C-alpha cells in the first residue's frame, strides 16, 4: 500500500509522514527539496524560473518513486499529482503543454498512492511555520501565493490519488495527534485486497 501525506507548504507533511510510517512499520519516502537545483531561484523570481522548477520537480519525484518495488508499503510526504497542481498554478500556454506531456508520460510509469491525506491548515498558521523554519528560499513567500496554491490544491484534489481525505486542522495539534488522526482516516478507508 502507498500512502501520501499532502498539504500546503508548512503543513507538516514530512513530520506526519515519518510518524505514520513509524507506526505502520513501513518505509518512508521524503521529498528531496534540498536537491532541487532551481528552487531558491524560483522563490526569488517565480516568473523567470517557473518552467525549469516545475520540470525539475516532476523529474525528482519520478526519480524517487520509480525505483520502489510495487509490493512494499510506503508512506511519502508528497503525492506525484502535486506536480500537476503546481504546474497548473505556475505555468500556462506552451510551458504547461510541455510540462503535461512529460508528466503524463512519467506518471504512467509509477504507482499512485492508494490513499492520500491532505493536511488543511489556516494560511496564518502556514505562514508562521514557514517563517519559523527559516528556509532561506521560502522567507520571501507571499501569503497570496500560498492562498492561490491552496485553492489550486482544493480544486484539484482528484489528481492526488484515487482516495483523498481532507484533514482539517487548527494548527495547534501536536505532531503525534495529527499522526493519530491520519491513521484513523487510513483505517476507515480500506483499500481493496488486490491493492493492499
Description:
The structure is a single chain. By secondary structure, the chain is an alpha/beta fold. Strands 2-3-1-4-5 form a five-stranded parallel beta sheet, covered by helices on one side. The protein contains eight helices and five strands, in the order βαβααβααβααβα. The chain has one domain (2-187): 3-Layer(aba) Sandwich (Rossmann fold), CATH 3.40.50. Helix 4 (82-90) runs antiparallel to helix 5 (93-107). The chain is globular.
Looking at the structure, the CATH topology is: Rossmann fold
- Count of distinct structural domains: 1
Uncertain runs are: 192-196
Tell me what the CATH architecture is: 3-Layer(aba) Sandwich
- Which sequence of strands runs across the widest sheet? 2-3-1-4-5
Largest sheet: 5 strands, parallel
Gross morphology is: globular
Helix amount, in percent?
A: 40-55%
Quick take:
This protein has 196 residues and is an alpha/beta fold. The chain is built from eight helices and five strands; from the N terminus they run βαβααβααβααβα.
Name some characteristics of this structure.
single chain, about 200 residues, alpha/beta, Rossmann fold, five-stranded parallel beta sheet, 8 helices, 5 strands, about 50% helix, globular
Write the topology of this structure:
Layout: E1 2-7, H1 13-24, E2 27-29, H2 39-44, H3 46-65, E3 74-76, H4 82-90, H5 93-107, E4 115-120, H6 123-133, H7 143-155, E5 164-168, H8 175-187
Parallel strand pairs: 1-3, 1-4, 2-3, 4-5
Amino acid at each position: 500500500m502507498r500512502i501520501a501525506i499532502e498539504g500546503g507548504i508548512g503543513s507538516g507533511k514530512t513530520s506526519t509522514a515519518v510518524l505514520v510510517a513509524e507506526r505502520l512499520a513501513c518505509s518512508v519516502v521524503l521529498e528531496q527539496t534540498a536537491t532541487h537545483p532551481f528552487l531558491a531561484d524560483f522563490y526569488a523570481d517565480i516568473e523567470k524560473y517557473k518552467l525549469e522548477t516545475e520540470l525539475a520537480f516532476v523529474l525528482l519525484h519520478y526519480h524517487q518513486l520509480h525505483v520502489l518495488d510495487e509490493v512494499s508499503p510506503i508512506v511519502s510526504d508528497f503525492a506525484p499529482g502535486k506536480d500537476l497542481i503546481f504546474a497548473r498554478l505556475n505555468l500556462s500556454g506552451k510551458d504547461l503543454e510541455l510540462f503535461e506531456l512529460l508528466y503524463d508520460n512519467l506518471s504512467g510509469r509509477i504507482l499512485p498512492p492508494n490513499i492520500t491525506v491532505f493536511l488543511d491548515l489556516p494560511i496564518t498558521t502556514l505562514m508562521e511555520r514557514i517563517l519559523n523554519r527559516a528556509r532561506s528560499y521560502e522567507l520571501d513567500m507571499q501569503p497570496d501565493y500560498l492562498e492561490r496554491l491552496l485553492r489550486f490544491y482544493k480544486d484539484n484534489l482528484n489528481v492526488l490519488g484515487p482516495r483523498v481525505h481532507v484533514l482539517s486542522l487548527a494548527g495547534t495539534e501536536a505532531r503525534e495527534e495529527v499522526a493519530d488522526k491520519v491513521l484513523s482516516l487510513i483505517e476507515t478507508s480500506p483499500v481493496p485486497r488486490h491493492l493492499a
